[in-house]
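Marked as duplicate of an earlier ticket. Keeping the data here for the record.
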Amino acid sequence: MYNILVCDDDRDIVAALTIYLTAEGYHVLPAYTGEEALRVAAENEVQLALMDIMMPALDGISATARLRETSNIPIILLTAKSEDTDKVLGLTIGADDYVTKPFNPVEVVARVKSQLRRYTMLGAIPESRPKTITLGGVTLDDERKQVEVDGERVMLTPTEYAILRLLMQHPGQVFSSAQIYAAVWKEEAYGSDSTVAVHIRHLREKIEITPADPRYLKVVWGQGYKFEKGDRS
């Protein structure tokens, strides 16, 4: 799953884009100022940024220039019709594309997909991941396709393993049932809620000491599931 930074001082725009991008399986990292966008980018692995030009304090052009000092991720500017000069300046300092307001969110999603395809084809997004992941007492060895809990090997089905790997690769990140289904089954997520819930229940029975009070596989009501490192706080 790709992380998309969405920065605009208009919270309604951020909220609308979040809905559309999340529906496509992306994880949105919101920001409302240029300074906040830079902080989010520094603290997270971001694959693409949507950046509004006109923002108080640090504007989108300045934030783009700062971001370009350390990152080559695609940057799409969100601009007003009156900002033609800024569009050119933004592209000059390293933005990859722009969308003019008012825009159709579907168009923005299409631009995001296009930029990510190019970025991936250029090899900028590393496809390889660590072969072994250890979070709390759970260790997933992706080379041997084995899982151990507190040093004891547990037997998982291929589907259970794929779900666990997805969640452990993104600790703390919430995945909806639809996102899990699309990532693991590689199909449209129709009727995915009950299917994913059954596999999550089976996973809990295998890796949790008390499945009814899980330490690792947590549900976020109304949103989805996440893997925590084992801290009960």
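See parent ticket for discussion. The domain at 3-121 is CATH 3.40.50.2300 (Rossmann fold).
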